[in-house]
Amino acid sequence: MLDTREKQGLRWGYPLLSVENVKLGYRVNGHTNVAVGNASFQVWPGEKVMLLGPSGCGKSTLLKAVAGFLEPEDGVISFAGRQDLRPGPDRAVVFQEFDQLFPWRTVLENVAYPLRATGRSRDEASEKARRFVELTGLSHAVDRYPHQLSGGMKQRVAIARALALEPRMLLMDEPFGSLDAQTRARLQKELNEVTRRTEVTVLFVTHSIQEALVLGDRVVVLGHAPSEVREVLEVTGAAGDLDSKRFAWTRRQLCNLLAEDGEEVDDAVFE
Amino acid sequence: MQSLSRERTESTALPDTIGKKSGGGYWGRFPTVARYAVLVLALLGAWQLYVSLSGTQALILPGPVDVAKAFVEGWADGRLASATLVTLKTLCIGMVIGMAVALILTAFATWTKVGEDLLSLLTSMLNPVPAIAILPLAILWFGLNPTALIFVIVYSITWPIAINVSTGFETVNPTLVMVGRNLGLGG
């Protein structure tokens, strides 16, 4: 049974995203705070890779670098063969904040705007926007403004907006982090449905083991800052049966990897 | 006092008046328009009373009745109308020029660091100087004509506009800026 990497590799020959020995830092008052010490991993087309790590380990920083907002201090990030990465609609981003939508536009206009901004005609943008709004289950709210939506709905709109661009990769920075557990679980399920139907490649940042197992094909585990890739685990299907040994084993693996060195792993600590 | 204690016993939720000064009691019961109208009339009345009783010359301090009479006469024979028109014209020209100057400065400030420093320096040095202090200088430079006035108007509005617009740009929600950049938009 071929794993996802090999399956896609046959089709493409090279990974969609390749992060090699990347070092990322923030310049503060003259000296650099290193967030990511040395990260290397690959993302193949069609797969869903989760960046998992404790708070402050630089996973969001890594995502921003892939998106093109930050330049690596060291190392190489290549996307679809290109190395000079500026922000662009081929790597659409879904942020964590609820205020990532334009508050002065309706749901439909928010989803249609990126399409207009990237050159589509008004009719084409509108029609496409409607399709993706329907895909994320928001047809009943097309004419509402962001302040009239719940948190979960706002994130759905953000996801619809990103997907409507039909990006080569969907970058998601803990988009469900600010939601309550029930809404989060529902949106995770919907995201799985939607990504299955659109076959989009996803790079998802999370600090939750549960989320990593439910959504991911592979999990890249990062250590504390300055972080390095501790391990890359294959988790496809592990969350399918919550009682299976495989799920328990994978979960324990991830717990151990996330635990601070020397710290006793407490099951209740990690979700 | 009475209404507050009644509210406390009737509901467990905090009443809206918590934190505000006492609701105003008897006076506060009247609608806003009525309250303000009464106060304005009282002030006018006091003014008229003073003028009538103290016998001040109308040249020094006219009473509200005299002012009203002059107002009506001024409109009737067109003096006020033409004067108002001239003032409006001067104001409009001043505003347009002032806004243009402010926008140019702000655009420069938003796009370059040099511009940002320049604007910061200019506004902190010149904004505190009131326009009325510039008036004598303006008259000296441009003479006693509308140009001097326009200069003063431009001076007085440019700095506040520049400060407000650049603050507006600086306080744009950074997430929205990232969304825009993600779409490939620049500037």
Describe the protein's architecture and organization:
The complex is a heterodimer of chains A (271) and B (187). Chain A is of the alpha/beta class. Chain A is built from eight helices and nine strands. Helices cover 35% and strands 24% of the residues of chain A. Chain A has a nine-stranded mixed β-sheet, sandwiched between helices. In chain A, a hairpin with a 2-residue loop joins strand 1 and strand 2. Chain A is globular and about 50 Å long. The C terminus of chain A is likely disordered. Helix content of chain B is 76%, strand content 0%. Chain B is flat, with a radius of gyration of 27 Å. The relative contact order of chain B is 0.06.
Key features of this structure:
heterodimer, A: 271 residues, 9-stranded mixed beta sheet, 35% helix, disordered C terminus, B: mainly alpha, 9 helices, flat, disordered N terminus
What secondary-structure arrangement, pairings included, does this model have?
The complex is a heterodimer of chains A (271) and B (187).
Chain A: H1 4-12, E1 17-28, E2 31-43, E3 48-52, H2 59-67, E4 74-79, E5 91-94, H3 107-117, H4 122-135, H5 151-164, E6 169-173, H6 181-198, E7 201-206, H7 209-215, E8 218-222, E9 227-234, H8 245-258
Parallel strand pairs in A: 2-9, 3-7, 3-8, 5-6, 6-7
Antiparallel strand pairs in A: 1-2, 1-4, 8-9
Chain B: H1 2-10, H2 25-28, H3 32-54, H4 64-76, H5 79-111, H6 113-126, H7 131-142, H8 146-170, H9 174-182
Helix pairs in contact in B: 5-6, 5-8, 6-8, 7-8
- Unreliable runs of chain A, pLDDT <50, ≥5 residues? 267-271
How helix-rich are the residues of chain A, as a percent range? 25-40%
Q: List the secondary-structure elements of chain A in sequence, H or E.
A: HEEEHEEHHHEHEHEEH
Shape of chain A: globular
Number of helices of chain A: 8
Taking the sheet with the most strands of chain A, its summary is:
9 strands, mixed
Which two chains form the greatest contact, residue counts included?
Answer: A-B, 19 and 10 residues
Strand content of chain B: under 5%
Order of helices and strands of chain B: HHHHHHHHH
Distance between the termini of chain B: 59 Å
Major sheet strand order of chain A: 4-1-2-9-8-3-7-6-5
List unreliable stretches of 5+ residues of chain B.
1-11
Strand-pairing-aware structural class of chain B? mainly alpha
**Arithmetic mean pLDDT of chain A:** 84
Strand content of chain A: 15-25%
Mean pLDDT of chain B: 85
Helix amount of chain B: over 70%
Total strand segments of chain B? 0
The number of strands of chain A is 9
Rg value of chain B: 27 Å
